[in-house]
Amino acid sequence: MFELNFMQNAFMAGFIVSILCPFIGLFIVLRRNSMIGDTLSHSSFAGVAIGLVIGINPLLTAFIFTSFCAIIIEFLRSYYKKYSELVMSIVLTLSLGIAIILISSGKAATKVDSFLFGSILTVTKSDILLISSIGLICIILLILIYNKLIYVTFDEDGAKTNGINVKLINYIFTLLVGATISLSIRIMGVLVVSSIIVVPVATAMQLKKGFNKTLLFAILFGFLDVILGLILSYYINSAPGGTIALTSVITLILILVLKSGLKKH
Question: What is the torsional sign of CA 41, 25, 34, 69?
Answer without folding.
Answer: negative
